[in-house]
Amino acid sequence: MELHWGWLIGIYLFLGGLGAGAYLTSFAAEKGVLGDAASLKKVGYYIASPVVAFGALLLVFDLGQGLRKPWLILGMFLNLRSVMTWGIYILSAFILVGLIRAYYAWKNKKSPQALTWLGAILALATGSYTGMLLAVVEAVPFWNTILTPVLFVLSALSTGLSATSLLAHFMEKGELKEGRLCQAHLALVLAEIIVLGLFIQRAASGVRGMAAQESAAKLISGSLAVPFWVILVALGLVGPFFLYAVNARKQRPRLQIQTNPPTLAEQEQAAAKLHHVGAAPAICACDAAVMLGSLSLRCLFVFAAVPIWNLTLG
């Protein structure tokens, strides 16, 4: 007997993380962390709520109530002991706040700081919730660890950064400065690789039980090994990590003994000029690969699930 969680759940988890990460990307850009590209400060706000709302709609349909018994959806708001109920309130609040924040961005109006910060808190909660939804399932030891929400938050931040910077790149018509973006990409992808490696190592070692060990085996050498190693690890993590690292190294100003050292603005302009000689297409490809890897991470985690009753029945 298998756990009946399929593609729609994987896509829902992906979209929830992407929307949360997109909001936090524009929030960070607005605070001056990611450079001064005007579109980067807006794109994340534009896409955050619609993406999360569409993902929530997929979840409703996957639960089987969306078309057959829509009135039963109301019951999902009443079970306050359920993590899914908490998630519904978090998602609903985030979608509403995100839409209001997007309106301010679209109208080029200054948003109230309380609203912007509330959206950031709800975005972080949304990204965490996508991992908690799996982590609280005690019947699947592979998921049932604090590392699951940690990994999903890192992936959400990385995915949202990739989606937002990719769209912002085209909105800026090639003028987007990638110096700080590459550094942020590099840090997030590296952290994700480390946490994923620790996650798989602990599951494969048997520390979390035979069911978790069997789930890890499906990813490492079993039926899901090819998409795990090729799409997630090679294409979605390791490849982008090396390209971000190379690009970040090229953009780092060389240390020289100068009478008048360049200002920070001059360093960023030089880095941006170097970037646009030929690295932009590769960075865009990396952003797309990171998003594909993030989607595969969620789907693979769902498909690799081995519930404890399978071992009992076996």
Describe this entry's structure for a reader.
Helix content is 72%, strand content 0%. The chain has one domain: Formate dehydrogenase/DMSO reductase fold. With 314 residues, it is mainly α. 46% of the residues are buried.
What are the key terms here?
Formate dehydrogenase/DMSO reductase fold; mainly alpha; 314 residues; 11 helices
On the 0 to 100 scale, the average pLDDT is 84
> Low-confidence parts, pLDDT < 50 over ≥5 residues?
254-259, 270-278
How many beta-strand elements?
A: 0
Q: Write the element-wise H/E pattern from the N-terminal end onward.
A: HHHHHHHHHHH
Q: What is the alpha-carbon Rg in Å?
A: 21 Å
What's a quick, concise take on this entry?
With 314 residues, the chain is an all-alpha fold. It has helices spanning 7-30, 40-62, 83-106, 113-135, 147-171, 179-205, 210-220, 225-251, 264-275, 280-303, 308-313. Helix 2 packs antiparallel against helix 3 and helix 2 (40-62) crosses helix 5 (147-171).
What's the structural blueprint in terms of helices and strands?
Blueprint: H1 7-30, H2 40-62, H3 83-106, H4 113-135, H5 147-171, H6 179-205, H7 210-220, H8 225-251, H9 264-275, H10 280-303, H11 308-313
Helix pairs in contact: 1-2, 1-4, 1-5, 1-10, 2-3, 2-5, 3-4, 4-5, 5-6, 5-10, 6-7, 6-8, 7-8, 8-10
